[in-house]
Automatic annotation (TrEMBL), chain A:
<protein>
    <recommendedName>
        <fullName>Large ribosomal subunit protein uL15m</fullName>
    </recommendedName>
</protein>
<feature type="compositionally biased region" description="Basic residues">
    <location>
        <begin position="31"/>
        <end position="44"/>
    </location>
</feature>
<dbReference type="InterPro" id="IPR036227">
    <property type="entry name" value="Ribosomal_uL15/eL18_sf"/>
</dbReference>
<dbReference type="GO" id="GO:0006412">
    <property type="term" value="P:translation"/>
</dbReference>
<dbReference type="GO" id="GO:0003735">
    <property type="term" value="F:structural constituent of ribosome"/>
</dbReference>
<dbReference type="Pfam" id="PF00828">
    <property type="entry name" value="Ribosomal_L27A"/>
</dbReference>
<keyword id="KW-0689">Ribosomal protein</keyword>
<dbReference type="InterPro" id="IPR030878">
    <property type="entry name" value="Ribosomal_uL15"/>
</dbReference>
<keyword id="KW-0687">Ribonucleoprotein</keyword>
UniProtKB/TrEMBL annotation, chain B:
<dbReference type="GO" id="GO:0016150">
    <property type="term" value="F:translation release factor activity, codon nonspecific"/>
</dbReference>
<dbReference type="GO" id="GO:0004045">
    <property type="term" value="F:peptidyl-tRNA hydrolase activity"/>
</dbReference>
<dbReference type="InterPro" id="IPR000352">
    <property type="entry name" value="Pep_chain_release_fac_I"/>
</dbReference>
<dbReference type="GO" id="GO:0070126">
    <property type="term" value="P:mitochondrial translational termination"/>
</dbReference>
<dbReference type="Pfam" id="PF00472">
    <property type="entry name" value="RF-1"/>
</dbReference>
<feature type="region of interest" description="Disordered">
    <location>
        <begin position="153"/>
        <end position="197"/>
    </location>
</feature>
<comment type="similarity">
    <text>Belongs to the prokaryotic/mitochondrial release factor family. Mitochondrion-specific ribosomal protein mL62 subfamily.</text>
</comment>
<feature type="domain" description="Prokaryotic-type class I peptide chain release factors">
    <location>
        <begin position="73"/>
        <end position="89"/>
    </location>
</feature>
<feature type="compositionally biased region" description="Basic and acidic residues">
    <location>
        <begin position="171"/>
        <end position="197"/>
    </location>
</feature>
Amino acid sequence: MASRGTEKALSLLRRLPRVELHNLKPNPGAHKNKTRGRGIHGGKTHGAGSKGSGQRQNFMRLGYETGNNPFYLRFPCQNYYKGHHLKLSYVPLCMGQLQKLIDTNRLRTDIPIDVSQLIYTGLFNVKPLEKEGGFMLQDDGMDHFCATLNLEVQWASESTISAVERNGGVITTAYYDPMSLEAAVDPIRFFKRGKAIPRRMLPPQNLIEYYTDPKNRGYLADPKLVAQERFNLAQKYGYQLPDPRESPHRHMLLEKKDPRQIFYGLEPGWVVSLPDSVILKPTDPELKEHYLS
Amino acid sequence: MNYVGGITTRHVSITNKAGYKSCISLDKIYPNNNNNNNNNNNNDTNIRQLPKNEGLNFSGYIPMDKVEVKYCRSSGPGGQNVNKVNTKVDLRFHLHSADWLSPQLKEKLEEKYKGSITGEGYLVVRSDRTRSQQLNLADTMDKLRLMVNNATITPPQPSYEAVERNRRRHEAAVRERLRQKRERSLTKQGRKEPQYI
């Protein structure tokens, strides 16, 4: 029979979240704010040092480097870089590369292909922290592309969409916000953190137009309009549009993620425990409501 | 089985049968689509509602099964690539037996594009504009559509006033030309020796 202290400690351990940097706090009284020195041993210079601009309250302007060309003036403004910190860049993926991956069995076509699958090939590196949004499909090598697949990328041009659809495949462009992309890019590392799978956020204002446009096969576009655009594209590029519903792999080809989902088959709110090979699902109704919103 | 980042999950049915549907799932954003099956990319309805051509109207639809497409090598510089890769596109169909065009359109096409029609009656459209076969095919489709659209256009008849205006201007020009000619003739005669009878 454990003592009351031990029992209390164990119950706390069960209830409280994992200890992390944002959970830590020093004991009361451990941290003392620095106060201005007044009299006897805080006296003489009163915490202002000796002479100079510090004691005389005549400070040099912020950024001044005592005469040499300061950092903030060294580099001229370039209009080319205006707003670059707000823009996303994408890792290019050619149709020819895709075909090669499939031919060399580095990429499977019997399951839907998304960011996670492409990165699992080991040949690509997407860095969400460096403002990379994911993959962008390029039409280099689209003439000899002949694979039927369910593809989900972040950016696709019209000719690449036609190349995929001509072969009976399905292509969608989807947005992953930086946190979701980090999880998608390295799922195992994410699961090891022991955190619930987050909901994927909607695209920012400048990208909403792209992802709601049926011409780009955006994941937020009206499916009816997407079907119309598929037909129009087939007429534009001169091929007969194959119906994925009539293919033997129709279940795989028509599988789509919910706009809030990051992984196929896993819902937001679930905690994947790799060592125990168990998925923990939330039971609290408030949490459930949150993850369905 | 599901594959996520290379790990295999042993649970067979992870999601509930209905699937995860958040508040921004497509059903919620586009509720009017509930009448059609939610499995997207429904081609059937489009094929059933195919646009029809009547008289001199052309809807723009070209049936790809009624048209022959052949690929061959392109001309111009380009080394090994242009020598080996079939990027040129040759699109042809027999004009008279094309049932997707109305008879009036066929007549007009024959009239306007005599040069593109072979001896056997095939209308031929070619393109080697780009380096890509598929883009060239798109170019031929565009060209064919342009040809058919041009055939549907009848230039407007000039008005009575315009015809009259042109006739008056033409006649005035002719008169002026003959007047200048006569003047020049007199100048040249003036340079000759006078003729005494």
